[in-house]
Write a structure and sequence with these properties.
Elements (H helix, E strand, L loop, with lengths): L1 E7 L2 E7 L6 H8 L18 E4 L2 E4 L12 E3 L11 H8 L9 H13 L5 H4 L11 H8 L3
The protein binds FE2/S2 (inorganic) cluster (FES) (2 copies).
Length: about 150
């Protein structure tokens, strides 16, 4: 057992894990109750588990929790307190989600691209996540003015 402190969405959390190589995704969802970040493939393909770690988009399904210690983790729950992040506003305006399962990962990738200084179509080109509902055209519309 290891006790670790994680900074998630601006708050420090103490967690006890049985294995330091546990994926960050399990800790976020099962220990901290932050279920907005989703599990899809588990092999870094779909992007459903995307989170920001020190402003970089990372796949929480393969990011071991010990490597996240001392870094700033942002999940979909921490993007804004009230859906006011420009990407969230654009998603609402363009009614992007269908089933919604992939969308927290999509939004995190859009936010990460914006943090990296990208705008418009350049944001869309940074999003490689999978959406089985095929919302890609609406994502392109939503990011066009960001
Ligand atoms: S669940 Fe992590 S990339 Fe698919
Ligand atoms: S909105 Fe359903 S998987 Fe993307």
């Amino acid at each position: 057992m290891s006790q670790l402190t994680l900074n998630v969405n601006g708050q420090n959390h103490s967690v006890t894990v049985s294995d330091g190589s546990m994926p960050l995704l399990w800790v976020l969802r099962d220990l901290l109750g932050l279920t907005g970040t989703k599990y899809g493939c588990g092999i870094e393909v779909c992007g459903a588990c995307s989170v920001l770690i020190d402003n970089q988009v990372e796949h929480a399904c393969v990011f071991d929790v010990t490597s996240a210690v001392g870094k700033k983790i942002v999940t979909i729950e921490g993007l804004s307190p009230d859906r006011s992040h420009p990407a969230q506003q654009a998603w609402i305006e363009h009614q992007v989600p269908q089933c919604g399962y992939c969308q927290s990962g999509m939004l995190i990738c859009a936010a990460g691209a914006m943090k990296a200084g990208h705008h418009g179509a350049a944001i869309a080109s940074e999003i490689h996540n999978l959406c089985v509902c095929g919302t890609y055209p609406r994502i392109k519309q939503a990011v066009a003015k960001l």
